[in-house]
Amino acid sequence: MAPFLILLGTLLVAVGARAVDGTAFPRPPELEPDIQFWERVYTEVDTGGGLLHDSRHLDVVYEVIRFSPGTSQRARERHIKKTKARYKKILRTLASGKRQSLTPEEKRVLALWSKGGSKAKLRAAARRLRFQLGQADKFPAGLIRSGAWEARIRWTLSEMGLPQELAVLPHVESSYNPEAYSHAGAAGLWQFTRSTGRRYLRVDHVVDERMDPAKATVAAARLLKHNRDVTGSWPLAITAYNHGASGMRRAERKLGTRDIATIVRRYRSRSFGFASRNFYVAFLAALEVATDADSYFGPLERHSPPNVEIVTLPDYMSADTLVRALDIDRAVLRRHNRALKDSVWRGAKHVPRGYELSVPRDPGKAPANLLLASVAPSERFASQTRDLFHKVRRGDTLSVIAARYETNVGELMALNGLRSRNRIRAGQVLRLPTHDRVVSTTLSLSDPGPAPAPLPVDGTYTVRRGDTLSRISDRFGVDARLIVATNGLPNRNHIRVGQTLKVGIQTPVDTGPSKRDAAPDSDLDTLDGSEQLQTATGAEHTEEGPPTRTGETAPSAEDNDGLESPPPSAIQPENSADPGDYSMAEAEHTEEGPLARTGETAPSAEDNDGLESPLPSATQPELSADPSDYSVAEAKHTEEGPRARTGETAPSAEDSDGFEAPQPSATQPELSADPSDYSVAEDNRIEVQAAETLGHYAEWLDLRASRLRRINRMRYGEPVVIGRRLRLDFSNVSAVEFEQRRTAYHRALQGVFFERHQIAGSCRHVVKPGESLWLLSRRTYRVPVWLLRQYNPDLDLGAVVAGTSLRVPILLRRGEANQGTQASEGSPQRTC
Questions:
Q1: What string of DSSP letters covers 63-100?
Q2: Residue 440 pLDDT more than 80?
Q3: If you average pLDDT over residues 275-291, what whole number do you get?
Q4: What residue spans define the domains of the chain?
Q5: Across-strand partners of 594?
Q6: Where on the phi/psi map is residue 544: left (φ > 0), alpha (ψ -120 to 50), or beta?
Q7: Which H or E run contains 481?
């Protein structure tokens, strides 16, 4: 495997050394000064210094600052602050109009602005001083590390039909460090946030696949492909990797162009700060440097790809068991399996069944699968170690926690004495149910449970620690009563470790009527609007005002699982651990109930203007006077603005001193992969998104729904339609608070859904006669409308007629067999 990868890597790197594809990745002349600036950062100045420059005009570099060896971070910051103050004074002097008796330094600074040094421009420049730490030592270190991963990355990109140049992005994101972890929680080679990563990867308290370079590469490729589909160009798709797809769509709509140079130069938004503006030019600079690395750094000896074999674990096992069975150093095994969390290595959790363990090849040992086959039944487990407690993290909600631990919100509330499902706080410790399993009483049609494991070849099964007859029955899809009868068990509750049971005859388990077995025309599909909404959410939206609760406990994720709309009153940002605790939603609903079948009411094609700022509340200035290492190469930003980096200090706002902490994000990081627009335009209008109702807007605005009907001239019973623009009344609630409530709702909605599902690719579906978007979403693909909307953001959902081409995300339930590293997209025209 390793020799093949080395050869493949050599060939692919050679391919990558060709000239950059000017069509896919244009290098606009207007952005050439910016690209050259980043080439200087990557090749001329190391982390012992940096460039003091203008944050908008990167060709204006006032000084190359050098720090003495051993200088502390605080001393560096003082030096930068003092230097900036000196240049600020010079610029203000020049801005006053002084042109006579200038000092040599004043003349030099004025010459930097000779093409347009007006008083106003110089005054503005005094506010835009920024320090950029050099990267000339980090970049070659990243090139050396890249040898271990670049061949695999390029192979994955090739398999998915994506440009090879994208293999450069880890230089910009993490300097090709697979262990990179930012203060804000972005992790791994590709610097995924937790929420965006969970769309494509397993990210929980046992396994974090963001740290697995191979799996994270597939996820990054899927995200980039999605960004390209949404934005329509690679420059925007790459910028969207930093700024978010919705942010780039707003920029395009505001300026009426996809031209990256125009957007970089003219787009203004509180969230479109320095890093977002510079992400694409930094990518081009990194591509130039990586392609011609020898001319910049001389010959570099790159790391070799890891020589490992992959073995899929057939059972839950402890890390200690694996170390003993494989006769391998614990640190070595851990280094090759970065995705396993500390809880596994501490022994608090087992390595999960189905985990793809990477084991270094050793010609002196038997293959890893044979070594693991010798593990005794007493060291194999049928289930994961139970969690007894959960410490609430930022972003947690009761619904998310309940979904994670296969319980329900009501039980968590009762066990912890919680009076409200909406009031938990970060740091709070919750007690978890300790019985074998909590089964929801209202299972979703889209949650059929894990597929049965294949029956053993010899028809027998050896009981392992943690097994119960019910678990064995569920695992193989064999009726527990049949196992009892076949094996002559006197007591179904008494089985022992090492006991051999016959399980060879497979018969469906008769559990009585269940929604899992419901026919397509089940009650859940045929309820009228108000019944369906009330049944699914426990709340009824009325014309007279916000929804009235019909019970104290709203349904949890397992009750809903993404196919019904949650009540807006469950979505209060201040009432949870940041924030909100919400159930899931699928289709657009009116306050009376679900929207009529797609095609009956066409969404408006009204243009979306005034959307440059995602949240008026955000006061995120651009990053400028930055004393620390805030290079694009070290940063991963989402559409809401700059995110903390992997360096020592967090980025500051662009202000006079550059030491203050950044303002709150303009939108939620969890929505960075969501191209939907949740902002309020300057004319107080919004674009209706999937899973929203007039009742939602009424509650978020503390108004009656009838008020919104009047100002939008809507008839009673007329549905709100996805894509339509509605005018809102902010007399009781500010646009800022409305946007916070709205984004909190969608953040939690998506968070709960991706607790249970992950995206494994996408495909194309051509609508056939008689099909509707509702049927395709609910029955054919089991994909929520809001997710279909994200994959088809420019499609008029009311005009889905025969012949319409839809992009459909391919979903896997968490816990399904690994789909491997090959993406299912392939050609963008792949049919479903």
A1: EEEEPPTT--HHHHHHHHHHHHHHHHHHHHHHHTT--S
A2: no
A3: 97
A4: 50-133, 316-379, 460-502
A5: 589
A6: alpha
A7: helix 480-487
- Residue 332 carries which side chain, given as an amino acid letter? V
Burial of 4 (0-12, 13-18, 19+ CB in 10 A): exposed
The least confident of 250-264, 502-516, 801-815 is: 502-516
Ranking 489-493, 544-548, 775-779 by mean pLDDT, the lowest is: 544-548
Contacts of 681 (CB under 8 A, 6+ apart): 608, 609, 610, 611, 725
Q: What are phi and psi of 541, to 5 degrees?
A: -90, 125
Distance CA 324, CA 316 (A): 15
The residue assigned the tokens 């469906």 is 508
Q: CA torsion angle for 730, 735, 737, 743 (degrees, to 10)?
A: 120
Mean pLDDT of 442-467: 61
Q: Which residue type is seen at 291? A: T
Residue 39 corresponds to which tokens in the numbers above? 């080439």
Structure tokens at 174: 């993490």
Own/partner pairs, 231-234, CB within 8 angstroms, 24+ separation:
231/258, 232/258, 233/258, 233/260, 234/24, 234/25, 234/163
Q: In whole angstroms, give the CA distance from residue 690 to residue 787.
A: 8
Tell me the torsion sign for CA atoms 318, 321, 323, 326.
negative
Of residues 637 and 78, the one with the higher pLDDT is 78
Residue 741: both structure tokens together: 């409530």
Task: Evaluate if residue 155 carries a pLDDT over 70.
Answer: yes
Eight-class DSSP state of 719? P
Helices and strands in the chain: count of H runs, count of E runs? 31, 15
At residue 304, the pLDDT reads 96
Q: Which two tokens stand for residue 149?
A: 């991963």
The answer on pLDDT for 337 being more than 90 is yes
pLDDT value for 448: 37
* Cβ neighbours for 101, distance < 8 A, ≥ 6 positions apart: none
- Give the mean pLDDT of 491-512: 64
List, in sequence order, every residue forming a beta bridge with 545; answer none if it has no partner.
542
The pTM assigned to this predicted structure is: 0.73
Tokens of 508: 């469906």
**Integer Cα distance of 429 and 42 in angstroms:** 45
* Range of weakest confidence among 49-63, 389-403, 696-710: 389-403
305: left (phi over 0), alpha (psi -120 to 50) or beta: beta
Instruction: Give the chain's mean pLDDT.
Output: 77
Strands 129-133 and 61-66: unpaired
**What's the pLDDT band for 671 if we cut at 50, 70, 90?**
low
| The dihedral sign for the CA sequence 635, 640, 644, 649 | positive
The three-point CA angle 268-688-269 to 5° equals 10
Of 64-73, 613-622, 710-719, the poorest mean pLDDT is in: 613-622
Relative orientation angle of helices 245-255 and 234-243, to the nearest 10 degrees: 120
Q: Are 497 and 557 in contact (CB under 8 A)?
A: no
Q: Which of 571-575, 733-737, 744-748 has the highest mean pLDDT?
A: 733-737
Comparing 521 with 178, the larger pLDDT belongs to 178
Tell which wins on pLDDT, 32 or 613.
32
- Encoded amino acid at 16, one letter: G
Superfamily of chain region 460-502: LysM domain (3.10.350.10)
Instruction: Say how far apart CA 763 and CA 802 lie, in whole Å.
Output: 17
| Residue found under tokens 């009956």 | 600
Angstrom distance (rounded) from CA 435 to CA 106 = 75
- Side-chain half-sphere of 526: how many Cα atoms within 13 Å? 6
